[in-house]
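Quick one - first record:
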Amino acid sequence: MEAVATPKPKDAYRNYDAPARDTVREFYRLNHTHQTHDFAVAKKAEYLRFDRREMTWWEALDYLNTLVDDSDPDIALPQVDHLLQTAEAMRADGQPDWMVLTGFIHDLGKVLCLFGEPQWAVVGDTFPTGCPYSPKVVYSEFFAANPDMQRREFQTGTGVYSEGCGLSNVHMSWGHDEYLYHLTKDYLPQPAQYMIRFHSFYAWHREGAYAYLQDDTDRAMLPWVQKFNPYDLYSKNPDRPKLADLKPYYEDLMAKYLPATIKF
């Protein structure tokens, strides 16, 4: 995909052995220590009431302009820049407009930080809770400090799940993916829902782990998530897009698919 090509070689992205930013290892130590099954279930109950505040999408995006993701080993630009780079790469490749919109909003769930959540409970790669941790999860060694490691029912066989139960029935580690999925699922086509909900689940869509949890729908949707991933990852570069020039297009695109305001 020429639109996402950059001078930086692709194998230089997601370099967790030598991340470009010194926040990354500490982020994952905290994330893997504190993201328990009970924590994920409790956060879904807390936040999926969507009773915090009502905002326009642009108000939420304006907040993201103040956030730099501590888990990202590749770049330290504000989030809106990353969203524009992702979406513009899709648009340049002629992807359908619903996918361009998905690229533009896919990290908007990071507004959870606005409500006082620490970044380890909002960003970073996601993983299933309530079942054995895969070594394919980045920095999996940090799971040794997670209390769920001591719960036999979580670390044996398929954990609390049955084989082929479907990812929709799995409690993923809590964060912006799950939150935004529930916020937008009534407005976007199913492939977009999967792109949003599982774009950070690298152990599944990139490494092939946790296949035992998949159902037929997951297998059918996996290629869409894999199609989304290069735009999300390889469009990152230090050149900041010009929001003022692009804003009218994205305002029209959001108006086509999304309500004017949303309860977060």
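second record:
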Amino acid sequence: MNRDWFPPLAELISNRAEADTAGALAELVGLAVKHEGTCLIAFHAERTPEVLHHTLEPAGASHYLDRYLAGPYLLDPLFRLSQEALKPGVCRYRDATPDRFRSSEYYRQYCEQTHLTDEIDYLVDMAGGTTLALVVGRRTRRFSQAEVGRLHDMTDLVHAAIRKVWDQHSYSAAADAAAEHLRLTRCFDNFGAGLLTERERQITQLLLQGHSTKSVARELGIAPGTVMVHKRNLFSKLAITSQYELFSRFIDELTRH
């Protein structure tokens, strides 16, 4: 083991503040692989996510994290994965995304703006329906097979550090966060209510998440041609002609209520 690992390992082992532990974890991951930023986020089943630690500059944090937490996190494949009963302990972000995700407006509006070329995510389930995710991002080039291997080899260590950060964490605004998450979730679930049929709303939700026509058909167990008919109908009812307009209508709904 390289001697450079000793100080951040000592920080992880010592009984210090949450920020010290999270910072030491980010430093340790940086010694294993070169990256352009980390973000430790808590995804909750019944309240909005919390960003526990990040290495973004202030302007970047305001632009990416604040907008993300205002509601679009509902479309994030990482958030959707965190809500699954069975999830990997570590995964590559692109492996968890729908087939047309890179063509989705969510990707264009949020993911593409971060300029990340690759991303590795560690996920740890905690009590009470909370999943913690450590995002490790790369802007310059994709992680090599050897680098991915090193990150996988660190899984137990990273998970233990993430659990320690959570043990040191205190949360004081659960009621407000729960109410806001419920509002946003209802907005997503009811988007198009009064105009669209239940099936059309299901298809709308999958389209917003980045699923193609074929993927929507697989998810719902219907024919691709049927999906196309529903898609034309829902676009007509919403008076839109593109995925961009669909996404914009959804964001408007989130901010209007």
